[in-house]
Amino acid sequence: MSEHSNHSNQESVISVRMMDIITALLFIAIGIVVMMGSIKLGASWGSDGPEAGYFPFYISLIIIFSSAVTLYQAVVVDRKKQAESFVDKESFKQVMAVLLPAIVFVLGVQLIGIYISSVIYIAIFMIWLGKYPAWKALAVAVGVSASLYLMFEYWFQVPLPHGSWINPLEFIGVQ
User: Fold this and answer.
1) Do 169 and 162 touch, CB atoms closer than 8 A?
2) H or E stretch including 13?
3) 64-88: pLDDT as tens digits
4) What DSSP string runs through 122-137?
5) Which of 97, 120, 96 is nearest to 108 (CA)?
6) How confident is the model over 2-6, as a mean pLDDT?
């Protein structure tokens, strides 16, 4: 029996075959973009050696060829993988429970800065997924963010994003 088989009674979100097709098409698209950029840079062998796009061109050619083989296998050869589950609904929900807040965190870093976003992100995860009391979650979240602030802003003197829309730390003098 295949190791990718779904032995549970969970309903599948996407099959292995469809995931192979999507991945192959994605890598073909990436390969084409890299190849076109390499051609613009010059992908041939010049009088003084390889031009700037020479190696990226051939690497993208290998990526496109490999992805085309994967696509052919997924579409023509491995039709049985249609029944094999890549991920079931419960596992997909667990991944989304982490991925979607992470996306919101990244957007929050851009809008309100990394320190305030980190406090919110850490506290929500500790309360929601870790089932910690709110006071512990807030104490850890503030402590971690304050430590990061001191480490990067003062010791390393490397400013991290403070936010493009609003800088919530401005009220204490942080520019």
Assistant:
1) yes
2) strand 12-15
3) 999 999 999 999 887 767 778 888 9
4) HHHHHHHTS---HHHH
5) 120
6) 48
- Report the pLDDT value the prediction gives residue 85, as an integer from 0 to 100: 86
pTM, entire model = 0.63
Rounded to whole angstroms, how far apart are CA atoms 15 and 23? 12
Return the closest-CA partner of residue 161 out of 101, 169, 171: 169
Residue with tokens 């929900």: 93
DSSP 18-47: HHHHHHHHHHHHHHHHHHHHHHHH--SEET
Question: 23: which 2 tokens?
Answer: 């991945």
pLDDT in tens, 6-44: 444 578 888 888 999 999 999 999 999 999 999 999 988
Length reported for the chain: 175
Contact 37, 107 (CB under 8 A): no
- What does 46-89 look like in DSSP terms, one character per residue? ETTEE-TTHHHHHHHHHHHHHHHHHHHIIIII-GGGGSSEEEEH
